[in-house]
Design brief:
Distance between the termini: 49 Å
Strand content: 15-25%
Largest sheet: 6 strands, parallel
Subunit structure: Monomer.
Keywords: 4Fe-4S, Cytoplasm, Iron, Iron-sulfur, Metal-binding, S-adenosyl-L-methionine, Transferase, tRNA processing
InterPro entries: Elp3/MiaA/NifB-like_rSAM, Methylthiotransferase, Methylthiotransferase_CS, Methylthiotransferase_N, Methylthiotransferase_N_sf, MiaB_methiolase, rSAM, rSAM_horseshoe
Cofactor: [4Fe-4S] cluster
Low-confidence stretches: none
Helix content: 25-40%
Strand order of the largest sheet: 2-1-3-4-5-6
Bound molecules: S-adenosyl-L-homocysteine, iron/sulfur cluster, FE3-S4 cluster
Structural class: alpha/beta
EC number: 2.8.4.3
């Protein structure tokens, strides 16, 4: 009899990619994917705790399985991901949801297969939260991917930066870089397998190699990857502005495979707030780096992460953020309301901002960001964009894919062009989406 798995993923690309690894482990144990928890023999929640609402989503959805678990006690429920690595989180989870069978930490992902065996052999729940960080992942074998023609490749794990608002260093541990040879062979196998876009993942890719005595650098890694010629795209995230500089910009300039789109989270525009955030750059330093990037790579687009409502943020601080949004000319940005994370420095700061003030500021910020996005989208009208077709949208009956700058383009096609680069003449733009007609080559 076939056994079914269902994975629910929250959080960043890192988690999306780790869910692919989880799926690989489950498939190796004979499970096959199904559409929902109802039919599943195992449901895995891969959680995120970056903001309170991410946690609440997961809590809500785990809680919703209580009834199903009562009617089908043999169904396994496993909870993994960042939420479980927080201090005392495993106990809290077990108390809140006694019907959960397996709790596993981000450092214990590869043990999931064994944990399932252990759980099957015993009645008691299995909890495995590693405090020791795995050294590296020399022979990481990713047998299953869900994102053709795009692929994610981890280049490093963890974070050393301790931005004062952020939980990631606590739940992901210190920076560990993968060896360049392992990364190169993974990328090379992906390209051999027909993948057309590779996104390198790390919390701060600019510190790649620092933990290996500086023997390797991120721009050096990019240059080595790009020695492999051919038509494909290379992206990376996230680049921390504090160590973003000319060597990386030069690498973007000289390697045609690297997309002219940089995600460079600024967080805030007020120097006082940036200092309290422990970001280690000022607004003008940030803007100088952006200027250098645009000087050397003139068509380069920029996206960002921006936060409102950090403790003590005044109206004047917030206006500095709005000013920076204008000056940096982001093509789009992710905007967040600051959410206190227990155990972080900022959560203990005085001057937490009332909810209504945060709400009012986020609305103004979103409007400022969207206005630029719309402007950038209308600049596409009448022009031709090169799209890597990723998928078919059943509801819209249109194919879709992104251009080099990350814009999503939708179009009609008689042939299935998934996995191919196509050219679109853009005739409509709404928000971040473009609509166009295929141009015959
Ligand atoms: N390593 C990346 C960020 C990863 S988290 C970097 O440094 O750029 C993604 C985004 O979530 C952050 O850029 C930040 O804008 C937001 N974020 C992190 N902690 C947050 C918190 N406590 N409240 C609200 N937003 C937060
Ligand atoms: Fe969090 Fe800062 Fe590390 Fe990014 S660099 S993951 S925001 S601590
Ligand atoms: Fe990512 Fe959330 Fe963890 S943003 S690293 S999944 S806390």
């Amino acid at each position: 009899m076939e056994k079914y798995y269902h994975i629910v993923t929250y959080g960043c690309q890192m988690n999306v990619h780790e869910s692919e690894k989880i799926a690989g482990i489950l498939r190796a144990k004979g499970y096959v994917a199904c559409d929902g928890a109802e039919e599943a023999d195992i449901v895995v929640f891969n959680t995120c705790c970056i903001r309170e609402n991410a946690e609440n989503h997961a809590y809500g959805n785990i809680g919703a399985l209580k009834k199903l678990k009562r009617s089908r006690p043999e169904m396994l429920i496993a909870v993994g991901g960042c939420m479980t690595q927080q201090e005392g989180a495993a106990d809290r989870l077990r108390k809140k949801f006694p019907f959960v069978d397996i709790v596993f930490g981000t450092h214990n992902l590869t043990a999931l297969g064994d944990l399932i065996d252990r759980k099957t052999a015993q009645k008691k729940a299995v909890v495995e939260i590693g405090r020791e960080e795995p050294v590296s992942d020399e022979d990481e074998d990713i047998s299953f991917r869900t994102s053709y023609p795009n692929a994610w490749v981890n280049i490093m794990y963890g974070c050393n930066n301790f931005c004062s608002y952020c939980i990631v260093p606590y739940v992901r541990g210190r920076e560990r870089s993968r060896r360049p040879d392992n990364i190169l062979s993974e990328v090379s196998a992906l390209l051999d397998g027909g993948y057309k876009e590779i996104t390198l993942l790390g919390q701060n890719v600019n510190s790649y190699g620092n933990d290996m005595g500086g023997a390797f650098s991120f721009p050096g890694l990019l240059d080595r990857i790009c020695e492999r010629k051919g038509k494909y795209r290379l992206r990376f995230m996230t680049s921390n502005p504090k160590d973003f500089g000319e060597p990386l910009i030069r690498s973007i300039e000289k390697n045609e495979q690297i997309c002219h789109l940089v995600h460079l989270p600024v967080q805030a525009g007020s120097d006082r707030i940036l200092k309290l955030m422990n970001r280690k750059y000022t607004a003008s330093e940030y803007l100088k780096k952006v200027e250098l990037l645009r000087k050397i790579v003139p068509d380069c687009q920029l996206t960002s992460d921006i936060m409102v409502g950090f403790p003590t943020e005044t109206e004047e601080d917030f206006r500095a953020t709005l000013d920076l949004v204008r000056e940096a000319d982001f093509s789009t940005a992710f905007t967040f309301v600051y959410s206190p994370r227990s155990g972080t420095k900022a959560a203990a700061m005085e001057g937490q901002i009332p909810e209504e003030v945060k709400k009012e500021r986020i609305m103004r910020l979103v409007e400022a960001v969207n206005a630029r996005t719309r402007e950038k989208s209308s600049a596409y009208l009448g022009k031709t964009a090169e799209i890597l077709c990723e998928d078919f949208d059943e509801k819209k009956s249109l194919y879709l894919g992104r251009d080099e700058y990350g814009r999503m383009g939708y179009f009609k096609s008689d042939a299935d062009v998934r996995g191919r680069f196509v050219k679109l003449k853009i005739n409509d733009a709404s928000g971040v989406s473009l609509y166009g007609d295929l141009v015959e080559e």
